[in-house]
Amino acid sequence: MPAMIQPDDQGNVCQPPPVRPYTVWAWTVATVFGIGRLKPGPGTWASIAAVLLWAAAARAVHLVPHVLLATLLAGIALALILGVPASTITARESQIHDPGFVVIDEVIGQWIALLFSPSDWAHALIALVLFRLFDILKPPPVRQLERLPAGWGIVFDDVAAGLYALGIASLVRLVF
User: Fold this and answer.
1) Is residue 154 within 8 Å of 91, Cβ to Cβ?
2) Per-residue pLDDT tens for 63-77?
């Protein structure tokens, strides 16, 4: 039996606020199946998940570098195609300009940082640390990309941070 709605002290009937509808596919993609709700640091959790998915793909394709690269590029493309509109919808529905729980951008940026990396944990850790560093510090033009409209700004600052991390990780590989 439903609960009775009781009047408040002034005799007004209080109703709970209406539940806002939300677009399930967009929230699922934007939060990467809820990873964006993990605390503390949902972006870091999403980056770790991206590294683990990359490592699983590396094992699944038996460490063949060109197949791993193709798989990673396909994952980045798919995440971008779905991630920009999902981020736009989720930001609009949550009424937050750049919601911290939207973490598909961290997955994309982390995968970019992992491009061309040998499939071992040392290189994965280097890519993870560098990406998180650039994502947090946001050197130019990373911060400026946040000004792009809606999902574009949410996602492309992390694309740029991933490119910075990729560049530095590649230099580290050349030197060592």
Assistant:
1) yes
2) 788 999 999 999 999
Print the SS3 string covering the chain. CCCCCCECCCCCECCCCCCCCCCHHHHHHHCCCCHHHCCCCHHHHHHHHHHHHHHHHHHHCCCCHHHHHHHHHHHHHHHHHHHHHHHHHHHHHHCCCCCCCCCHHHHHHHHHHHCCCCCCHHHHHHHHHHHHHHHHHCCCCHHHHCCCCHHHHHHHHHHHHHHHHHHHHHHHHHHC
83-108 per-position pLDDT tens digit: 999 999 999 999 999 999 999 999 99
Distance CA 48, CA 115 (A): 15
- pTM, two decimals, is 0.87
